[in-house]
Amino acid sequence: MFKLRFSLLACAALYSVACSKKSESSTEGGGAAASPTASAPPAAAPPPAPADPATRAKEMFKTQCVVCHGESGKGDGIGAASLDPKPRDYTDKTWQASTDDARIKKVILEGGAANGLNAAMPPYAAQLDEPVADELVKLIRAFGS
């Protein structure tokens, strides 16, 4: 998500520089000035500011995690039917008591295969920054409350 926003911002900046150089070159060196009725293309709107980590974590859960873990965190998402073993049930109090936050975060970032779990759990390190991963841990913990 960050890389996409950064790319869009970079493209907008390059477009802005290219447009300003084009208009400068048309008025320099004896060239005819642009007509007063011609208007420059509107400036690209800046990309929206990244949401706070908690909001981004909620979006991530809704778009990625819900598929297997379900909206209620019970491991009953639409993708769970084809998985063996089934996705983790975050409402399981025994599991919640048996694991720590660092382990949950490690699985989120590195994926299941790297942690001796189901390889269907993908790694998200390339898509998440630390604060969002920490907020995802908090979301997962909230299912056990």
Characterization of the model:
With 145 residues, the chain is mostly helical. It has two domains: 1-50, no CATH class; 53-143, Cytochrome c-like domain (Cytochrome Bc1 Complex, Chain D, domain 2). The chain is built from five helices and no strands. Helix 2 (53-69) crosses helix 5 (130-143) and helix 4 packs across helix 5. It starts with a helix and ends with a helix.
The low-confidence runs, each spanning 5 or more residues with pLDDT under 50, are 1-35
What letter string, H or E per element, gives the SSE order? HHHHH
Q: Give the domain tally.
A: 2
CATH class identity of the largest domain: Mainly Alpha
Determine the structural class based on helices, strands and strand pairing.
Answer: mainly alpha
Shape: elongated
Q: Count the helices. How many?
A: 5
| CATH homologous superfamily identity of the largest domain | Cytochrome c-like domain
> Can you give the mean pLDDT?
79
Helix content: 40-55%
CATH topology of the largest domain: Cytochrome Bc1 Complex, Chain D, domain 2
N- to C-terminal separation? 30 Å
Percentage of residues in strands: under 5%
Largest sheet: none
Give the tally of β-strands. 0
Shape-level CATH architecture of the largest domain: Orthogonal Bundle
Radius of gyration: 24 Å
